[in-house]
Amino acid sequence: MKGHSERVPGKNIRPLAGRPLFHWMMEALRGSKYVGEILVNTDSDQIGLDAERTFGARYIRRPEHLLGDRVSMTPLIEYDFTQCDATVMLQTHSTNPLITSATVDRVIERYFEAGDHDSVFTVNTFHSRFYWADGRPLNHDLSVMLPTQDLPPVYEENSCLYVFSRESFAAAGRRIGHRPVLVPTDPLEAVDIDEEWQFTMAESLMQRRIAGAQGRRGA
């Protein structure tokens, strides 16, 4: 997590439905049956110390050479592995506040299921007609107008959850290994905040979720 944001100023600590944005993902991780330790990699003392105090997380201060807006996720994960003894890592972002502990657990369980995969990551599923920039169809035949629900699905990496091992990360040089498994998620749960309108949408969905939970408790 960064202390600032170019497109949504201060989004990680900005209140969303009454709490700092990053608190929602921290709650999902803390509620997981499987997450052993939460590491918070950040350039912000405010975020890091709050994460330690409120959630019992371990604050990893981002080193000087990894500061800035143009640093990719790969060197950050590489650094995080030097700061812990974990053999398997789940990596996520604070900008997916609607992800639940149940989804975190489901993705982790999928990683540990038998198979020859080396990593898993979450995706959005689309049954729509997609095209390349030159007008060529990507996933359909223009001469065969299938109903969209019958089209082969196209998957979008939604940046919510990644699970990989220290070994697979070293072998592939990235969080998505050579033999990944794609795990679809609920599109409402997978809202990612990169723009102001997405913050507004995520807050509205969260308020609706909170109201629904309060209604069920009062029933």
| Total of DSSP H or I helical runs spanning 4+ residues | 6
| Secondary-structure element string | EEHEHEHEHEEHEH
What is the helix content?
A: 25-40%
The percentage of residues in β strands lies in 15-25%
Estimate the global geometry from the Cα principal axes: globular
Rg is 19 Å
| CATH architecture name | Alpha-Beta Complex
Query: Low-confidence spans: pLDDT under 50, at least 5 residues?
Result: none
Q: Compute the average pLDDT.
A: 93
Number of strands: 8
Largest sheet: 4 strands, mixed
Structural class: alpha/beta
CATH topology: Spore Coat Polysaccharide Biosynthesis Protein SpsA, Chain A
**Physical arrangement of strands within the biggest beta sheet:** 5-7-6-8
**Going by CATH, what is the homologous superfamily?**
Spore Coat Polysaccharide Biosynthesis Protein SpsA, Chain A
Tally of individual domains: 1
**Terminal CA distance:** 38 Å
CATH class: Alpha Beta
Architecture overview:
By secondary structure, the chain is an alpha/beta fold. It has one domain: Alpha-Beta Complex (Spore Coat Polysaccharide Biosynthesis Protein SpsA, Chain A), CATH 3.90.550.10. The strands form three sheets. Strands 5-7-6-8 form a four-stranded mixed sheet. A hairpin with a 2-residue loop joins strand 1 and strand 2. The longest helix has 23 residues. The protein is globular, with a radius of gyration of 19 Å.
Features:
219 residues; alpha/beta; two-stranded antiparallel sheet
